[in-house]
Structures are given as structure tokens and as C-alpha cells.
Fold:
Amino acid sequence: MLAWLSNKVRLIFLAKTLRVFGFGFLSIILPLYMLQIGYPTIIIGAVLSAAVFGSVIFNLLVSRFSDAYGRKKSLIILSILMAASALLMIANINSIFFIIAAFFGSVSVTGTETGPFLTIEQPSITAQVNEQNRTKAYSVYNFLGYSAAALGALFSSTSSFFNNILFGYRALLYVYFGIAIALVFIYFALGNALEIPKKESKFKISKKTKKIIVRLAALFSIDAFGGGFILQSILVLWFNSRYGISLDNLSLLLLFTNVITAISVLLAPLVAKRIGLLKTMVIPHIISNLALISIPLVPSLFYAITFLFIRQTLSQMDVPARQSYMMAIVKSRERTATVGITSIPRSLSQGISPTISSYFIGSLQYSLPFFLSGSLKLFYDISVFLSFRKIKPPEEKTGKTKI
Structure:
């Protein structure tokens, strides 16, 4: 199935799968583990905030220095810090060390990732595949990520198999530590395959690319801010508050939505082959957001779930297309900076809207989060198309779309 991929890219995919699997269960057990130990919610909130802030800082650092310092060395250091953070959380010295662990360990608190690993891996994949297979490679990359996150979330329940729940949480943290150590060996095995030519490693961004990055960062911020109104945790809160669905049924519903999402990203190359990368970023996204706005308007739970499934079928199809498009329209030496810098405002923007959304739901204004999310994301769709419709990736300039 993946015969068209080099062994180096397969190793990157393996690293992605293991890492996001770890994030999938850590994002669930970390707050529960800290509660079990006896930390107050304000400290837990500080740890989660430290994780987000750390992701932003390390994205900036790898964007600026990893190409010159060495992508492989940077990834190995990040993996070692990830392992050290697991040990600090297991040791439970005090709350300060938990905050340090979250900040330096590239810990994801969402189950997915927008952190420094991604910033280095995306341009590395682009360098290892040809233009015809670039979007296909990103589709598989994201499919593995979404699938691993879903399996990781499911794996988090194994902590309850132990008689002592605290021991169960620590057992999973040791698994997380083992994943980080495995990443060290995987990145070491990649050798120099990730590196770009030394003459291109100097941090330099052209004026043209600076304009592209600024526009992308601004538009991605709007998209992420809108998406933050309907994060998975907000959907759980909404379906429980509106329809009284039990936790068991919600878990089953979210499992299906995650599976649908994972499968849908594999369709991106087929759509892009016919209509181009930019339209693949926009058209399915528009339909998805119209379905999102419809969820609170329908008269029953059955229709709400139906529109949720429609939304999930299309909402993430833009991700591999977006990644491929970004990597195609900038020079190789600018790719790491492009990924890193555009990821930072996404992370920050997405952290604001869940609080607003929770307030609306708590005030029984059930429809507002969906309307705000869908409207902002529709604005993003229209804006990104109008802003970039004249900028085509190399493979589309010939008039033949081969992705």
C-alpha cells in the first residue's frame, strides 16, 4: 500500500503514530492523575496553560534554528525532553515540576498536535516525496495521526484495570516515557535524510514569503478561533446538556466521529487531483461548516448526529491539502519557518474560544457556539480562497492537476 514511500518517510510516519498515540491518552489522564494526587484545579489549569505556551515557544525556536542546527538533532532533543517530562510527572516532586514538565516536554493537551515535532516533520516529508505524491503523503500522515489519537484515547481506559487507579495512571506515564525513548531511536535511524543543503539552512525568508506567512497566519487564526468553539470537549458538553446523552454513549459517538475523520483525510488527494489543492481546502470545508451550523437547528438527536457525521466527513479533508499547498508555494529553506510561524497563532487562538463557548452552553444558549464557529470558519474559507486563488503550486501551473 505504501510502496511509493521511501523507508525514511515511513519512519517519520511511525514516529508520528507513536507520538500522537501517546498524546491521545496523556491528554485524558494528565488532569485526572493530578486530581488523584490532590492538586487543585487552578494548578491543573496552570499546567495545561504551560503546555500550550511551551508549544508556542518551541515552535518559534525550531522555526528559527532547527534547519541550521540540524533537524535530526532537534527532533532527538525534543524526544529526550518529552521523556524527561514523563519522569518528572511520575516523580511528582511538586507543582512547579509539573509546570516545567508540561512546558519543556512538548506535551499536547488536546490529543492531537500543533507542536515543534510537526514543524520539522512536515517540510521533511515534502523533501522526500515528489510533487505527484506530496498530498497523498500528507493524507496518510494525518490519517495515522487521527487514528492514533483515537486509539490513544481508548487506551487511556486501561488505567482502570489496575486495583490502584494512581498506579494505573503512572503505568501509562511509563508507556509515554517508552514512546519518547522509541522516538529517539527512530530519529537517530533517519540519519541525515531530514537535513536540507547547508547553503539553504541559513534562516532567510523572502519578502514574498513573508507576505504569504502573514496572510496565512491571520487566516488560520480565524479558522482556529472558530474551531475552538466546537472542540471535542465542547461537543461532549453540548450533547450531554441538550439531549442528556450518557458518557458511555458519548464515547461511542466520538469514536465513530474520529474514525470518520481519519478516513476522510485519505480522500483529499482524490479531490485535489480533480479540483486542485486550494479548492480542496475550501469547498469541502464550506459544506462542513454549513452542516455544523445546522446541528442545533434540527428537531431531534438523530438529525443532530447525522449532520455531525456530515461535518466530520468533510471538516478535516482540508488539512493534508493545506499542508501540501503551504509546502508547495514556498522555497525549501522557508518551509520550516512557514509551518512553525503559522502554527503559533492557531494554537493561541484556539485556546480562547472554548471558555466563551462553555459560558454560552452554561447559559442555555445552545446554538450560539455552532453559529459562531460555522460563521467564522465560513469567513475563513471565502477569505483564503480570495487571497490565494492566483497562487498555484508548481504541479498545477501546467494546467494538469496531478497531486
About this structure: Residues 228 and 353 are 5 Å apart (CA to CA).
